[in-house]
Amino acid sequence: MPAHRRLVSKLLLVALLMFGFGYALVPLYEVFCEVTGINGKTSNTPAMLLVDGVDTSRVVTIEFLAKPNKDMPWIFKPEVRRMTVHPGEVHVMNYLAENPTAQMIVGQAVPSVSPGQAALYLHKIECFCFTQQQLAGGKNMLMPVQFYVDPALPAQFSTITLNYTLYDVTASWQPVASIEKIGE
Amino acid sequence: MSAISSEHDDHAHDHKPSGIKRWLFTTNHKDIGSMYLIFALLMFFLGGAMAMVIRLELFQPGMQFVEPQFFNQMTTVHGLIMVFGAVMPAFTGLANWMIPIMIGAPDMALPRMNNWSFWILPFAFLILILSLFMPGGGPSFGWTFYAPLSTTYSNDSTALFVFAIHIMGISSIMGAINVIVTIWNMRAPGMTWMKMPLFVWTWFITAFLLIMVMPVLATVVTMVLTDKYFGTSFFDAAGGGDPVLFQHIFWFFGHPEVYIMILPAFGIVSAIIPTFARKRLFGYASMVYATASIAILSFLVWAHHMFTTGMPVFATLFFMYATMLIAVPTGVKVFNWVATMWRGAMTFEVPMMFALAFIVLFTIGGFSGLMLAITPADFQYHDTYFVVAHFHYVLVTGAVFSIIAAAYYWLPKWTGYMYDERLGQMHFWCSLISVNLLFFPMHFVGLAGMPRRIPDYALQFADFNAFISVGGFLFGLSQLIFVWVVVKCARGGEKATAQVWEGAEGLEWEIPSPAPYHTFETPPVIK
């Protein structure tokens, strides 16, 4: 039955494509969230500093939150809870990390911005969240994030909250991969 | 609509092996349809037994009979069995039995694949049910298996759950391909697209939905499997994933899935109402277009299940309006059914009673769906018993009632005997009253804030829950009457005529009752 065979192959192809489409939703979702800034996702690549000048006519309050994931033993907190900035000004904020255990632990911080729509306007020039951070047992360190608020930030946003959740990724940590990253 | 002029006699030589081999190796659409229907009935009672455990525990506040972990397994497996084991196989069984007859084809297009699609199904459910006996118990994350409940926080029964879902998905996709190829290639000469009975049309569209979304379900369970066992991080924020992504992919499957479970029901009701109103279906073409519109819209509304995940306002507005838009084609259907009955010479045999109950109660479920579609209101209703009330109205008094109606409607054609009308009416009234005792009060406890999937509740909900549980037990018992009717009808009774129902039209009523093992080996001529 060639008529059957042709139709069956077409329908099977549709099923297969839809299986692939499910996987394609993953990058589509990533890109969609990054472009629109919904979901509070910030860019994972360093931002360029735009020297458009500082908008001194208004101030924006940046609140800093830090939360180790429940399986992450590090003590993790920002140096100060909030900071008032002018849009366009570059600031550095340090996060304190301490590994109270005896073992080396690798951490990965995942940022989230609230309100979500403001995520597009918070630019990070340098951030500890861009790479995995390793810390030997009993040690502590300062982890900086260098950022500025885009002067194009819509006027309705007067406060932006930047939250980091810190995860223990020691299990999936690959030293070779991170050396390559440093070399770049 | 059509008449047969072919006068080929019944073939007495049915060439079928006897005993178990007949059922294992059969490629006959009627045998396979019967097996699907019996399997669905068994699963309906198994899933129902789990619902009884849930209602027993919720009869009183506090913990009485089961552990919370076991309660969660019951809500999860009840949902999975009812969706994938009862409603979907029942519709596939009806499709197998009726579609070839309704379009004048000798069998399904791919009979051997048809055998496979059925016979892998019992193994899928065997795996799922056996997972309940694993150390730590079976899946307990709800039938929606949200990550990270199903990834980080689940036990190893998840692997069995994933494989069971894979097999169910393969079975559904094969079944759907078979339906499309049969309808596309095997219609009798003269059976044009717009002459097809609506049950065939609705199943044709449903089959496309199945082919489009069952693979997406396969994707999402595979992602859960690899996240849990193979170190991927699709839904794990630590590895750059996002748990909200799970909900997007799941509901991209999940919303069309709920229409998969209701579109064939529309087809059944559109067959029954004209028969017992003794009038042609009002607005046939608009029914076809409405079904197609519902199917297309079903791909654009998935995020209305996720309003509380913190979506931006424009997205919630889009999904809210798109969801409300579905009420338009659905309203067209309800209008057409009512218009068909208008000034009809109606009689009220059991299939008609269930079809009428379907129209009223499904519409109630549709209205509570509209309430849930309102984003700000949904923040109050989300994850409460109001949602449970809503989807049980559309799935039990909607999908299940339509399947029962279909069983009564075609039972004389399948067995050759009339069912016991008195027992059938008793089944109907017991079901109708108990199902409303069971699900209607859930609206109120839900609005008052009782959360779903929790084995205990605040004291003020005690009376309502005792009431609901009694309704549940009565509804469960009422279904035993149905089994009695079916068994009695299969064993004998008043002989059914070929037409069975006075007002019935269509090819299936022009072949003898019971339907011969082989039908339409010579295609009928459709006038």
From TrEMBL, chain A:
Coiled coil: none annotated. The keyword Oxidoreductase does not apply. Keywords: Copper, Membrane, Signal-anchor, Transmembrane, Transmembrane helix. It is found in: Cell inner membrane. It is a single-pass type II membrane protein. Belongs to the COX11/CtaG family. Exerts its effect at some terminal stage of cytochrome c oxidase synthesis, probably by being involved in the insertion of the copper B into subunit I. NCBIfam families: PRK05089.1. This is Cytochrome c oxidase assembly protein CtaG. It comes from Alishewanella tabrizica. The lineage of its organism: Bacteria, Pseudomonadati, Pseudomonadota, Gammaproteobacteria, Alteromonadales.
UniProtKB/TrEMBL annotation, chain B:
Residues 23-527 form the Cytochrome oxidase subunit I profile domain. It is found in: Cell membrane; Membrane. Gene3D superfamilies: Cytochrome c oxidase-like, subunit I domain. The keyword Metal-binding applies. The keyword Thylakoid does not apply. Keywords: Cell membrane, Copper, Electron transport, Heme, Iron, Membrane, Metal-binding, Respiratory chain, Translocase, Transmembrane, Transmembrane helix, Transport. It is a multi-pass membrane protein. It catalyses: 4 Fe(II)-[cytochrome c] + O2 + 8 H(+)(in) = 4 Fe(III)-[cytochrome c] + 2 H2O + 4 H(+)(out). The chain crosses the membrane at residues 36-56, 76-97, 118-138, 158-186, 198-225, 258-276, 288-307, 313-332, 353-374, 386-411, 423-444, 464-487. Its EC number is 7.1.1.9. Pathway: Energy metabolism; oxidative phosphorylation. Pfam families: COX1 (PF00115). Cytochrome c oxidase is the component of the respiratory chain that catalyzes the reduction of oxygen to water. Subunits 1-3 form the functional core of the enzyme complex. CO I is the catalytic subunit of the enzyme. Electrons originating in cytochrome c are transferred via the copper A center of subunit 2 and heme A of subunit 1 to the bimetallic center formed by heme A3 and copper B. Belongs to the heme-copper respiratory oxidase family. This is Cytochrome c oxidase subunit 1.
